[in-house]
Specification:
This protein starts with a strand and ends with a helix. It has one domain (2-107): Alpha-Beta Plaits, CATH 3.30.70. It is 32% helix and 41% strand. It contains three helices and six strands, in the order ββαββαββα. With 111 residues, it is an alpha+beta fold. The strands form two sheets. It has a four-stranded antiparallel β-sheet with strand order 3-4-2-5. α1 packs across α2 (69-79).
């Protein structure tokens, strides 16, 4: 395993699989992400405008680098159907050396 403090996983929920796919394709085309995994049928409960809401969503796991997080946030916000999209970035502690190398190559980040 390789330490990889510059790698981020960004969590984004979307109301539809189609919206998640649209966002993923743009992020990959623009080399803002190396991989976008989409998990369907995630049930979210959340407070909104004084009420508790529940909906089924798609959860995106966007793999990128620290220096691309702001650009990912901007592009997701532009394409997302929610007024307040969930966009959460967490640092990756470590990952397999070959995967980290591949990820950095995909998004044009030098080691």
């Amino acid at each position: 395993m390789e330490k990889s403090q510059d790698i981020r996983i960004i969590f984004v929920t979307t109301v539809s699989l189609e919206n998640a796919r649209q966002i993923a394709k743009i992020l990959l085309t623009e080399k803002l992400a190396a991989c976008c995994s989409i998990i369907q049928n995630v049930v979210s409960l959340f407070g909104w405008e004084g009420a508790i809401n529940e909906r089924t969503e798609s959860l995106m796991l966007i793999k990128t680098s620290e220096n691309k997080v702001d650009d990912v946030e901007r592009r997701v916000s532009e394409m997302h159907s929610d007024d307040v999209p969930e966009i959460i970035s967490v640092a990756l502690d470590s990952g397999s050396t070959i995967y980290i190398k591949w990820l950095r190559q995909c998004i044009g980040v030098n080691e």
